[in-house]
Fold this sequence. Notes:
Blueprint: H1 2-5, H2 13-41, H3 50-80, H4 85-116, H5 128-137, H6 141-166, H7 173-192, H8 194-210, H9 219-238, E1 250-252, E2 255-261, E3 269-278, H10 283-303, E4 310-319, E5 325-332, H11 333-339, E6 355-358
Parallel strand pairs: 3-4
Antiparallel strand pairs: 1-2, 2-3, 4-5, 5-6
Amino acid sequence: MDTILNPPLPIALEEFYTLLLSVSGVLFGIAFAAMLFVLQSGFSSFKFSRRMFLELYLHFGRQLLYSLAYLTAAPFLVLFFSDSFTMISWLYALFFLYFLRATLDYAKQEGYILTIHSNKSVPGHYGPIRTYFRYIANRGALKNTLFLLPVILFLVYPYAISIIETGSLYLTKTAIFYSCLIPLLYTLYKITKFIPEFFVYTGMEMSARSQSSSEEQSDEQKRQNIIEKKALSKYLTNHGVSELNPATPRHFIDGDISVNFLDKQDNDKAHFNVNVNVSNVTPERVRSNVLEYAHSLAKRLHESKVSINTFVLSFHIRIGNQSSRNIFFRVSRNELDKIFAIGKDRPEDMAKLKNVLFDELFR
């Protein structure tokens, strides 16, 4: 604990700032050019809500550029101005405010996208400030803790060092060093996510697009849908879903279960007709076991890498000599991401989906 509150300084401090100045200057130019290229060219393939994803990536880029701007200016002031501590203190204060705002804007924009594609909402009577933070809250407590708390602690750390050493918010020699080291490490981390971050948005856009019924699909897209479904069928068979073959139904309670995958349809949804035949069981047990099976199948679908983003599970349940009953699930990849998030992997979550229909017998 004492090392954290009174951290050491490197021996070759001037060499560190000299190297940092040259490295950050090069990274600044490269990151700026790469960001312009992605914004201009990378998003051209987006067909659904392109602007909201552009804005999300812009906030991601702002974090990176603000860090590199500070990492270029701060060592320059240290090396070429004798009375630089005061100037760097004010510079860090500006960096603190701008970087924190960019981080919150990123969280707000991501929360906005998640909100419009989920059951979450923002009350209409909220003003702009409450709406802003409600969007951030809609990302979830765990995600906000893992994403926002470390950033805030890292930004405040140099001030904590200064307060312990001098009782002032003006940065000391040690605080200035760590005000550069921490953003440098964070910048290197963000650079590793520069391209992966774009592909995250691509997946989000495709999932969002699949929920929009207004867009006509081309013949090429329809052919691609059939190819993707064949790949999905092979993936499921290779991962233990043997009941896709009608000749090999799986044991289910005191009966069996088989799956008919409509892989010849050329739409962008994977539709599964699940046939359940049981004998002497209660509706409660059927509901519980269907949720477990649906959850298990949904996990396989979630783990698949095909470009299908909407899945329909239509259960046709026959108990003894009774007429067939139905349970219906329609789920997107965005919803699957939430169902299989850390700490939320429970079969009962399938019943909480937006598009779920239970026969009266199973409610």
